[in-house]
Amino acid sequence: MNDPRIPIITGDNSVQSKTAEPMEAHPSVSRTLELLAADMNAYPERMLPLDTRLVARILSLVDQIDVDLNEPLLAEDE
Questions:
Q1: Residue 15 covered by a domain
Q2: pLDDT tens digits, one per residue of 41-67
Q3: Which residues sit opposite 16 in a β-bridge?
Q4: Of 36, 31, 29, 34, whose CA–CA distance to 3 is shortest?
Q5: Does residue 18 fall inside a structural domain?
Q6: 3 occurs within a structural domain
Q7: Residue 56 carries which DSSP code?
Q8: What is the pTM (predicted TM-score) of this model?
Q9: DSSP state of 1
Q10: Is residue 65 within 8 Å of 11, Cβ to Cβ?
Q11: CA distance 35 to 38
């Protein structure tokens, strides 16, 4: 996948976009957001606050890792 509409997420939690086109213009992103919104509307009781300890744990695991979703996977990564 080499889609310029998908941003690069850097280790400092910033997003770099190579295009001015919004991600929502991508059909799969739009469909995913529609499904998420429908589920949230149908089951609002399932919406729970995010625990700050979980956020801290996630950040500790991915801190300083740059992710380029447009970069093809290496053979050993697949």
A1: yes
A2: 999 999 998 899 998 998 888 888 887
A3: 8
A4: 29
A5: yes
A6: no
A7: H
A8: 0.40
A9: -
A10: yes
A11: 5
The whole-number pLDDT of residue 1 equals 47
Number of domains in the chain: 1
Gyration radius of the chain's alpha carbons: 16
Query: DSSP secondary-structure letter at 5?
Result: T
CB 36 within 8 A of CB 28: no
Residue 16, domain extent: 8-71
- Would you state the structure tokens that stand for residue 42, as one six-digit string? 């149908």
Q: Decide if 74 contacts 5 (C-beta within 8 A).
A: no
In a domain, 45, yes or no: yes
Report DSSP letters for 26-50, one per residue: SHHHHHHHHHHHHHHHH-GGG--PP
Residue written as token pair 């998420």: 36
DSSP for residue 70? T
